[in-house]
Every structure is written in structure tokens, then in C-alpha cells.
Design brief:
- The chain contains 13 helices and 11 strands.
- It is an alpha/beta fold and 322 residues long.
- The chain has a 6-stranded mixed beta sheet. The protein has a 5-stranded parallel beta sheet with strand order 2-1-3-4-5.
- The longest helix has 19 residues.
- The radius of gyration is 19 Å and the shape is globular.
- One manganese (II) ion binds next to helix 2.
Length: 322
């Protein structure tokens, strides 16, 4: 069923129960999109959607509705509407898939190039810098409250790396500008949720930079964090955010790779590229996905296997490009 904005809001208006969920290991866009949409519905329809996320990273806890997020996915009556945000496939929706299966109507709002169209009605715009940006375009600007605006602004800030990634367009900036008019403090969101790092985050960033290795004539940089290090520092997913971005801006580098060992010999891969390599294509080959310049996957094997598999694919693309 094609996505129709009018029908979407009519469905929200009619629904008795509304569920919203984002992807596993939620990032800023995921949390901002889910809470921004929930706020808009609460503020304009007088309904309280239930928001499901694996966790709300501490830096985002000030967002309106963050305290009501459900992290334990209890079984419940089927939802009238269930909406997946910033997530394009079953695997990445995690335990929330149970709600999708029983929901009367399902929607997906997403911007991943690899989005599979796994819901009944899917609004997927890969050109959009953030899912929060798409959600803004569905809303009536005059009905956006400060709480909603803060969440959407945070989503855009995080997925654009503070308006610097190549996905940032004039529309992104104009929407961010419109959100500022709703009273958002850009300093609070940019410094407080993006740049501010804990001592632990800085330590692990330093360690990853120091241990990073260049290959393919300096075009690829990679670093890894193994189980031992994760356990030693007690690292959570949010503690390694931003490391990949620092690796990517190394002079001469086209692709940055950061791998974290989730369970023995199973590695969570993050990839970023600058201008040439399509990292979504590479991550898709290994069961993951994402965007042309930012993607992820989970690979198994030794550290060396993972790096060799990824660099072989990068090399093919670089050779083809000449
Ligand atoms: P990350 O390196 O985890 O920050 O992911 C980079 C981008 O790719 C983000 O937009 C993620 O949502 C997306 N992504 C990561 N892993 C996957 C996956 N397995 N499938 C689809 N998209 C992914
Ligand atoms: Mn995301
Ligand atoms: Mn996103």
C-alpha cells in the first residue's frame, strides 16, 4: 500500500492504540524520530503512543517522553497502528517485531538505502539526511511544540554529524532552521548530546586512534575493540559513538572501519566512506545495510577474517573506479 500522508494522519486520528519502535542499539536519529513523532501525536491528537526502544542513551534522557520509553517489550493486546522509524528490516527492529506481527495496520518511516519495505505502508526517502527530517515534512509546522522540535532537531544533528556529512542538503538546513524557531537550544543539543564525551569515551577514542591501522595505500583505516577491552572498560554501544567519524577524517582516507566484538568471534562493523566507496553495498553483502556513506553489519570470524573480507570488497570498488 503506497504511503499517503493524509491517510497516515487519519489512521492516527482513528486509532485507539499506537505503538512506535526504532532499530536495535538506538542512535540519535532513532530516538529523536520515535520521541518526536510520539510528541506530535500526544500534543495534537491527545493520544499517548507507546514507544519501544532497547534503551535511551543517557545524553538523550532530557527529551520529552524519554522517561516513558518501554525497554522490556512486554506482551500486550495488538496495536491498532504500529510504526517503525529509522529502521528498514525485521532483524533491526528486534523484539518489537512481535508487535508488528499482530498490529492491525503497520507503517515504516525510514531513510536507509537498503530499507526493505517490510511494513504494509512504507515511506522510505534515502535522500533524506535523517528519519527525523522526513517526520518533520509530515507534520504541520504550526502544530510542532518545543518538545517535538527538540527531538527532531536532535535526530537531524546526529545523522548529519552536526550538518557536515554529505547527506546534508538545503532542505535539511531549512528544516533545522524551522525547528530552531520552536525554541530549540542548538548549543544544548549539539554540545550536550553530540560533542560532549565522558572520560571513558575519550579514553576509548584515544585507544582506538592509537591502535588504528592504515591499509590499501592509506585509503582505508581500521580499528577494533575486542571483548577483553569491552569488558575491561564496561563499554556500552553509546561509548564508542563518534570514533568512526574521527577515523574517517584522517588525511588521505576514503573508508574508515571500526569493529567491535559483540560475542566471541562475532563483530559489529561500522563503515564510513568519503567520496567513492558505497559502504551500504558492502555491508549488504554481509547481511547488513545502511547508507552509501555510512553503513553497518555483523560479521563472524577472527578479526583478521573480518578485515580481509571488508578490504577485499573495498579494493574491488576502488579498482573499478580507477
Ligand atoms: P552505525 O555504524 O552502526 O552507526 O551504522 C551506520 C548507518 O547504517 C546507520 O544509519 C545505521 O542505521 C545503518 N545500519 C547499520 N547496520 C545496519 C544493518 N544491519 N542494516 C541496515 N542498516 C544498518
Ligand atoms: Mn539510526
Ligand atoms: Mn537515521
Amino acid at each position: 500500500m503506497a504511503f499517503e500522508t493524509l491517510t497516515f494522519w487519519e489512521d492516527i486520528g482513528k486509532a485507539g492504540s499506537i505503538g512506535i519502535a526504532g532499530h536495535i542499539r538506538p542512535d540519535g536519529d532513532c530516538v529523536g524520530s520515535a520521541l518526536g513523532l510520539a510528541s506530535y501525536i500526544r500534543d495534537n491528537f491527545g493520544k499517548e503512543p507507546e514507544v519501544f526502544l532497547e534503551e535511551v542513551p543517557r545524553a538523550f534522557a532530557f527529551l520529552s517522553g524519554a522517561d516513558k520509553v518501554i525497554t522490556d517489550y512486554p506482551s500486550r493486546e495488538p496495536f491498532d497502528i504500529f510504526i517503525a522509524v529509522d529502521c528498514g528490516d525485521e532483524g533491526r527492529l528486534g523484539k518489537a517485531m512481535n508487535y508488528v506481527k499482530s498490529a492491525k495496520k503497520t507503517y515504516c518511516i525510514d531513510h536507509h538505502a537498503t530499507s526493505s519495505g517490510f511494513m504494509e505502508s512504507n515511506l522510505v526517502i534515502p535522500e533524506s539526511a535523517a528519519t527525523a527530517q522526513i517526520i518533520y515534512t509530515l507534520c504541520d509546522d504550526s502544530k510542532i511544540t518545543k518538545g517535538c522540535a527538540e527531538a527532531l532537531y536532535l535526530g537531524i544533528v546526529h545523522d548529519t554529524g552536526v550538518f557536515k556529512h554529505s547527506c546534508t542538503t538545503r532542505e535539511t538546513m531549512e528544516i533545522a532552521g524551522a525547528l530552531l524557531d520552536h525554541g530549540v537550544s542548538s548549543a544544548r543539543i549539539i554540545d550536550g548530546t553530540f560533542y560532549e564525551k565522558t572520560y571513558l569515551q575519550n579514553q576509548i577514542l584515544g585507544r582506538c586512534l592509537m591502535e588504528s591501522i592504515l591499509c590499501l595505500d592509506g585509503k582505508v583505516i581500521f580499528s577494533s575493540i575486542d571483548r577483553k577491552t569491552i569488558n575491561l572498560y564496561g563499554l556500552g554501544p553509546a561509548d564508542t559513538e563518534g570514533i568512526i567519524d574521527q577515523l574517517r577524517v584522517t588525511k588521505g582516507v576514503e573508508v574508515a572501519i571500526l569493529i567491535r566484538e559483540l560475542t566471541p568471534r562475532s563483530w559489529r562493523v561500522s563503515m564510513r566512506s568519503c567520496e567513492i566507496v558505497d559502504v551500504a553495498k558492502i555491508c549488504s553483502m554481509f547481511g547488513g545495510g545502511g547508507h552509501v556513506r555510512a553503513a553497518g553489519a555483523t560479521l563472524s570470524g577472527s578479526r583478521r577474517d573480518v578485515i580481509n573480507n571488508l578490504t577485499a570488497e573495498i579494493e574491488k570498488q576502488l579498482v573499478k573506479q580507477g
